[in-house]
Amino acid sequence: MAPRIVDNHTTDSYRVNVIGTNSPVLVVLEGDQHPPRMGPIEASALVRYTREDGLAEALRGADALFLYDFQSSALRDVWSSADRLRWVHVAAAGVDPVLFPELRESQVVLTNSRGVFDGPIAEYVLGLILALAKDFAHTIELQRQGRWLHRESERIAGARVLVVGTGPIGRAIARMLRAVGMQVTGMGRRSQADDPDFGTVRPSAELVRWLPEMDYVVAVAPLTEQTKGMFDEAAFAAMKPGARFVNVGRGALMDTSALVAALRDGRLAGAALDVFETEPLPDDSPLWNLPGVLVSPHMSGDFVGWRDTLVEVFADNFQRWQTGRPLRNVVDKQLGYVPSRGV
Q1: Lowest mean per-residue pLDDT among 8-17, 224-233, 255-264
Q2: Which keywords does the record carry (predicted)?
Q3: Where are the domains of the chain?
Q4: What are 50's strand-pairing partners?
Q5: Which residue in 140, 79, 188, 187 sits closest to 294, CA to CA?
Q6: Which pLDDT band, with edges at 50, 70 and 90, does 170 fall under?
Q7: DSSP assigned state of 254
Q8: R_g of the chain computed on alpha carbons
Q9: End-to-end CA distance of the chain, in Å?
Q10: What pLDDT score was predicted for residue 13?
Q11: Is the pLDDT of residue 11 over 60?
């Protein structure tokens, strides 16, 4: 049955607010939650709120799409319904779920929410590194057991860390880690000397060459054809014995089975993982119980108020779009991210 269309009320598949007939038509893919603070946008556009099952119908005649459900890949399946679409905005920094060939080759402009998560993820990475170096997980477990077991912990000052991914999030991580005395090197598409955040940037083609020198490796690169699976068996085998791996980028950057093998054979001392090839992480994954592994549910950037901030970023771009001004955070659809220095 076709969805009912009712002004500002929930329907079978989507909701709309009806204003002037000359107003732009905006589709908002909601996911499990309705985006907050949409009032100013609703005042100037015909907004169709939908979930995945209503996306095809909602897209017909729509000018713009706000992917508030940023993990959804449903757009590809209903692309033929996007008969008037000119702009897609993703409420995330990563846009890999929508970089299918038809969108890449179209004239549709793609923007993301770059800048929202830089600081929060940098703080989270610092927390993960401290947790690994100071063995906090073991301390908490011993406390639960009521055991008094004195141990020594490691210093992070002076430790060498490779940040793989030199976009804004990687740069925020580099600044945070340098502030606590870590020796940071960046890795991006091109080499660079005297970088203000990383000091030195190595080219990603030389990943295996530089891994043996690093105490910590932080993966935060965007997911592209070039970066998919870059942390494979050869990469983990090249890492310094006793090194630790942190992934806050994309789960598909790593070969999970190769990581598990490196952890089980003792080559790596530990890992802190916030993203996974399959999410949620399956119940039978060995990562849940491997010693020295911290697992978190893709939350490194999700600070209190992040949903409001995502809508604010979109609202600013929406106003720019309506008034013909340049949009912020325009993604290069061939590269798969917003180009910036050193990426």
Answers
A1: 8-17
A2: NAD, Oxidoreductase
A3: 14-116+305-323, 118-295
A4: 14, 29
A5: 140
A6: very high
A7: B
A8: 22
A9: 48
A10: 56
A11: no
Alpha helices in 106-255 (DSSP H): 118-133, 136-145, 168-179, 207-210, 233-238
Give 106-131 pLDDT, tens digit per residue.
999 999 999 999 999 999 999 999 99
Question: Which has more confidence, 249 or 31?
Answer: 249
Say if residue 2's pLDDT is above 70. no
- Give residue for tokens 């993966």: 219
Kindly indicate whether the domain formed by 14-116+305-323 is annotated with CATH number 1.25.40.10: no
In this predicted model, what pLDDT tens digit does every residue of 253-270 receive, in sequence order? 999 999 999 999 999 999
> Over 60: is that where the pLDDT of 147 sits?
yes
- Please say whether the beta carbons of 206 and 186 come within 8 A: no
Phi, psi dihedrals of residue 186, rounded to the nearest 5°: -100, 160
Output the CA angle 205-270-207, nearest 5 degrees.
Answer: 5
Local structure of 211: helix, strand or coil? helix
Distance CA(53)–CA(233), nearest Å, equals 39
Do 51 and 74 contact (CB within 8 A), yes or no? no
118-295: same fold as 14-116+305-323? yes
Cite the active site residues: 250, 279, 298
How far, in Å, are 13, 56, 89, 278 from residue 297 at the CA level? 28, 30, 24, 11
CB-neighbour burial class of residue 29 (10 A; exposed 0-12, middle 13-18, buried 19+): buried
| Average pLDDT over all residues of the chain | 94
Which one, of 58, 67, 45, 52, lies nearest residue 4 by Cα? 58
Does CATH number 1.10.443.10 belong to domain 118-295?
no
What whole-number distance in Å separates Cα of residue 329 and Cα of residue 340? 10
| Backbone phi, psi, residue 202, to 5° | -100, 150
AA letter at 246: V
